[in-house]
Amino acid sequence: MNRAEIQRQVAELGPWFHNLELGGVMTAPAHFLGDYPRQKWKRFQHAIPSDLRGKTVLDIGCNAGFYSLEMKRRGAKAVVAIDTSDLYLAQARFASKVTGIEIDVRKLDTYDVAELGTKFDIVLFMGVLYHLRHPLLALDLIHEHVVGDTMIFQSMQRGSHDVLPLTENYPFSETEIFDRAEYPKMHFVENRYSGDETNWWIPNRACVEAMLRSSGFRIETHPEEEVYVCRVEGGER
Fold it and tell me: Which residues contact 4 (CB under 8 A, 6 or more apart)?
């Protein structure tokens, strides 16, 4: 396609949340977060192997496919990209077509990942947790059914960025610890946050890390403020 045709279809498929470069056309040049998610990717891309040849990747909540395309650029053998939004899926398919980078785009809910029937070497779970009404359930299902080795996790966070060292148990009489800002907390959004009615639960850092551990993940690195590289723990949780 020529530039004019790409521009026309980008406009028809808008609005875009991922600012992709497609044949010289930027899909979201006025993004409120800047060149997103490319500028975030630059801060943690070093934490993912540059050579993914032979690896399989699942991108949960792929949006327009930025991370799926990057995994394929690093040589991943197969990339499956799932989302529930017809608009985002159409954008991802269009991005795949324009770039000539093959990704397998499917409509599938996070809670239904068991239907994929296989585990992946790398699972991307980026920017999805806070859009879910049942976030811990989602992490449990992802751990059980699709993560073969590594999960790259990211969530918006609000509240304290400090992590409070905790013991394994507290007496019923202990109440003050729950008032500490750095205690694991999830903030519930009843209506909207940032104009988005799908923002349901927003954790602080301590909560993110506690939830990952609770679902059976071992945090290996924390390369960016909101990003974690995790491995599956062996044995039962």
Answer: none
